[in-house]
Amino acid sequence: MNKEQELIRKKSPVNIKNKKASFEYFFIEEFTAGIVLTGTEIKSIRLGKASLVDTYCTIINGELWVKGMNISTYFYGSYNNHEMKRDRKLLLTKREINRLASATKQTGYTIVPLLVFIDENGRAKMDIALCKGKKEYDKRQTLKEKEDRREMDRAMKVYK
């Protein structure tokens, strides 16, 4: 990811993150995909009313779908409000989808959503990653590194 893309994500008024993903998986390769949404879904996302807890991506008939993503119903919506946990299509190029499909056929690899944000044109985008699951000892190592970083930060604050 280049600096311009990082700047867009930081400026975005909406940043819905999958916080457990970095603890559960090693990220192999990251992609940015568009999301096919209905009218009330985009309004709910702009209000920050979405969650990526327990979401995953799958490839069905050459198309990439995100499953388990929760977008709360829009408060001002009427009878045509959306379903909260329906499957949503992600937009990637055919080459990227084929690369992901061949990689997920190997055992231990999966596609996980990392972040939902609004780009500079007002469209909802999703960062996804090809991931490999961590073993238990890898998770312990991650926790240890996180704790060490906290201790170093605390020590630096004391010395300042």
Secondary structure elements and pairings:
Layout: H1 3-11, E1 15-17, H2 21-24, E2 25-35, H3 39-46, E3 50-51, E4 56-60, E5 63-67, E6 70-71, E7 88-91, H4 94-104, E8 109-118, E9 124-133, H5 136-159
Antiparallel strand pairs: 1-8, 2-7, 2-9, 3-6, 4-5, 5-7, 8-9
Task: Walk me through the structure.
The protein is of the alpha+beta class and 160 residues long. It is 35% helix and 32% strand. It is built from five helices and nine strands.
Average pLDDT figure: 86
Strand order of the largest sheet: 1-8-9-2-7-5-4
Order of helices and strands: HEHEHEEEEEHEEH
- Briefly note the structural class of the backbone: alpha+beta
**Biggest sheet details:** 7 strands, antiparallel
The counted number of beta strands is 9
Continuous helix count: 5
Q: Uncertain spans, ≥5 residues at pLDDT below 50?
A: none
Distance linking N and C termini: 33 Å
Round the Cα radius of gyration to an integer and report it: 18 Å
Q: Which band does the percent of strand residues land in?
A: 25-35%
Helix content: 25-40%
Morphology: globular
Labels describing this entry:
two-stranded antiparallel sheet, 160 residues, 32% strand
Would you summarize the structure shown here?
This protein is α+β, with helices and mostly antiparallel strands and 160 residues long. A seven-stranded antiparallel β-sheet has the order 1-8-9-2-7-5-4.
